[in-house]
């Protein structure tokens, strides 16, 4: 079937670049004869921009949120049935379609957009089960044997693509860790809640590790927790960058917390944040104190100077700190003004003489 081949091709593209999942949803709409489709995590903490949907359904999402319908959506009851059986429909949770038609969510919202019948398909992802939610018109008959057969054909294609996307994302993160090869820095990635944390060594090997609280003192990790949760479940274009310095067991550490650059992550993965931990020598600590106390540099600016002095280019610094190149250049201009220098060369010379 031509549409199945098209779906396979789009899924291959989506493993490399998450923006293609919208095209995948459009393809599935055509394949099933649906009116709209959306990929939804069963865990509400990963909702928001970490979803993808067809063009037609995407047009209704602003109204869905603005009207507060996400707080009173009876289709949430479909999720556990979908997880148990592999697929489910809203016909499974209503005694009759007449009763469903009188439910405010359908009567006042979905029916106006002709999205009256739902089929939810279970997909296994690194973030647990997600639902591929297909929306049909109000008169669509109960799920047919042909649709069940199509679900069985499509679901493994999605799950294989999702597994491949995860593997590619890990490979990219391991490559990212090479920025710090030979610097003595450790690179960690973790989810917004700090519940899962993976250590990546400079050889690019990945292993399960600790929670966020083991990277930062308790008071720092607790204050960061809420901000991480908000950033990781909101606008994917937001850039998080925080720098910390603290002493533990008679050692001084710098930790840079950044939102993982978009090309490193995939929205099916729970890992959205990087932590770069470096043990500082006493000499480095003195230099950083002078930059902080003598020149009024912020922690983020100090990290920028450290990276520049270690041989990193502004483009590499932008990559490491999950910033735009223009933002790094603007930050450097601010550093020049505070330190009374005119170029990167002069800044590095100043740092070397501290």
Any key phrases for this structure?
single chain, 354 residues, alpha+beta, Beta-Lactamase, Arc Repressor Mutant, subunit A, 14 helices, 45% helix, 19% strand, WH-like_DNA-bd_sf, DNA binding, Tscrpt_reg_LuxR_C, HTH luxR-type domain-containing protein
Structure write-up:
The protein is α+β, with helices and mostly antiparallel strands and 354 residues long. The chain folds into three domains: 2-143, Transcription factor LuxR-like, autoinducer-binding domain (Beta-Lactamase); 170-175 and 183-280, 2-Layer Sandwich (Beta-Lactamase); 281-354, Arc Repressor Mutant, subunit A, CATH 1.10.10.10. 45% of the residues lie in helices and 19% in strands. The protein has 14 helices and eleven strands. The protein has helices spanning 2-16, 21-32, 55-58, 61-66, 78-85, 97-101, 104-109, 145-177, 218-232, 282-295, 299-309, 314-320, 325-339, 344-353, and strands at residues 36-41, 52-53, 87-89, 117-125, 128-136, 186-190, 197-200, 206-208, 241-248, 251-259, 273-280. The protein has a six-stranded antiparallel β-sheet with strand order 8-7-6-11-10-9. The chain has a five-stranded antiparallel β-sheet with strand order 2-1-5-4-3. The chain is elongated and about 80 Å long. The chain starts with a helix and ends with a helix. 36% of the residues are buried. The model has no long low-confidence stretch (mean pLDDT 83). Residues 294-351 form the HTH luxR-type domain. InterPro entries: Sig_transdc_resp-reg_C-effctor, Tscrpt_reg_LuxR_C, WH-like_DNA-bd_sf. This is HTH luxR-type domain-containing protein.
């Amino acid at each position: 079937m031509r549409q199945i081949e098209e779906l396979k091709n789009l899924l291959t593209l989506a493993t490399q670049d998450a923006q293609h999942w919208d095209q995948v949803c459009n393809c599935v709409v055509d394949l099933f004869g649906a009116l709209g489709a959306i990929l939804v995590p069963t865990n509400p903490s990963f909702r928001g921009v970490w979803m993808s949907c067809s063009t037609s359904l995407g047009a209704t999402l602003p109204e869905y949120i603005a009207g507060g319908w996400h707080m009173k959506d009876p289709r949430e009851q479909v999720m556990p049935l979908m997880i148990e059986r592999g697929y489910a429909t809203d016909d499974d949770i209503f005694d009759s379609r007449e009763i469903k038609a009188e439910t405010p969510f359908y009567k006042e919202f979905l029916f106006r957009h002709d999205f009256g019948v739902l089929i939810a398909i279970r997909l296994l992802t690194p973030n647990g089960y997600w639902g591929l939610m297909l929306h049909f018109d109000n008169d669509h008959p109960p799920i047919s044997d042909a649709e069940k057969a199509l679900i069985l054909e499509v679901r493994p294609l999605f799950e294989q693509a999702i597994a491949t996307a995860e593997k590619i994302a890990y490979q990219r993160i391991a490559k990212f860790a090479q920025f710090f090869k030979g610097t003595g820095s450790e690179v960690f990635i973790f989810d917004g809640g700090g519940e899962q944390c993976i250590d990546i060594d400079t050889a690019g090997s990945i292993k399960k590790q600790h929670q966020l609280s083991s990277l930062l003192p308790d008071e720092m990790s607790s204050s960061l927790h809420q901000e991480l949760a908000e950033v990781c479940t909101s606008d994917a274009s937001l850039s998080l960058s925080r720098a910390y310095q603290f002493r533990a067991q008679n050692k001084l550490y710098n930790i840079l917390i950044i939102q993982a650059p978009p090309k490193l992550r995939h929205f099916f993965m729970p890992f959205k944040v990087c932590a770069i931990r470096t043990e500082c020598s006493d000499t480095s600590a003195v230099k950083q104190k002078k930059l902080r106390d003598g020149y009024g540099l912020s922690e983020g600016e100090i990290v920028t100077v450290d990276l520049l002095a270690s041989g990193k280019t502004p483009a590499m610094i932008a990559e490491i700190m999950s910033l735009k190149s223009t933002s790094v250049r603007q930050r450097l201009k601010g550093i020049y003004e505070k330190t009374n220098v005119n170029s990167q060369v002069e800044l590095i010379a100043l740092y070397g003489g501290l």
